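Quarterly update from the structural biology core.
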Amino acid sequence: MLDLAYIRENKDLVREHLKIRAPKLDFDAFLLLDEDRRVGIQSLDALRAEKNRANDLISQLLKDKKDPKETIASMKVISQKIDELEIKVGEVDKKVVDLLMIIPNIPHISVKIGADSSENTVVLSWGEPKNFEFKPKEHSELGQELGLFDAARASKISGSGFVVFTGAGARLQRSLLNFMLDYHTSQHGYKECWPPALVNRATMTGTGQLPKFEEDMYKLKEDELYLIPTAEVPVTNLHRDETLKEEELPLKYTAYTPCFRREAGSYGKDTKGLVRVHQFDKVELVKFSKPENSYEEHEKMLKDAERILQLLNLPYRVLQLCSGDMGFSAAKCYDIEVWASGLGRWLEVSSVSNFESFQARRANIRFKRKETGKSELVHTLNGSGLALPRVMVAILENYQNADGSVSIPEVLRPYMGGLQILKK
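Predicted structure, tokenized:
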């Protein structure tokens, strides 16, 4: 959430960014509401001051043994006006807060102003896509032939958009999770946690998923709980309504969770295989940083996520997203895309974002400066380290062999009990 004072002081800047980031939002109507709210608060303050003066006058009249009836009558009129205005100001204040909750973050100065993904910038490429001497198969065909996953039975038990990993496929999935968690904790210094997959509304609101993206969430209506779309949600909210110590920062967490997304509006896209599913596994990276260090920590987090693909020896590229393609809460974001040889295209496996104080303001996460004793909002960051379905796609398609088998990346073999190849 943006600071209301910041919006007032930077109206033109915010208006320009909203033309791309939230074109349907009536920003001028929001400003008028905010002005009405401020005028209402000023009127309330004036009436309350008038009531206090009337109270003082009544006390003095009683002390002087004079009749206070006329003053009491006028004070009742003032009290009634206060009651009516408090209701009106409360209604306007709620409208202001509701709109404030759906205003996206303002891009960092280094972010390119652009309308959509066509204006993203490739900032780094690593590895070379393999040249096959045969036509590479898509992962959906390989997975079925090798018995690694079963989409038909998943559809029977859950519906379309789900998958059951079986046999070596299930073990490969588990191996990837363990490898990523082990590496991020032992080599990158993240603290592992295992949060709940069901969270309350306040938690979803704290990281910016609600109220804007409610239609994309799976919700348990009876309990007012939501299935998480990413571990970012519960892990960031670990410190909601807390004040951290300056010397604790940066705090670094990693977590595995299942993730659930309805993908509203995306039906019919990538329905075959693992590219777009409603439930998937992901290892997440989350940081809490001092404001002056957050962009340095952002670059480090990007490198941490990249390292997993390097160790898996999978070709990838890094894109810096333009303002129109970034997520709602992000001030700056990189996407990491891995090459899938069978599909012949790049697939996003991680978004690494700096939210600055946007989430911290919503979730009330602060830290206390040791030197001054003053508390400030932290900066929050997160990135996938990595999302498994498309990593699995890339492994199957890039490590496939002419006979239909798939070699296992060397770094995963110890987790696979020494197994080196998947075959019929």
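The first strand starts at residue 121 and ends at 126.
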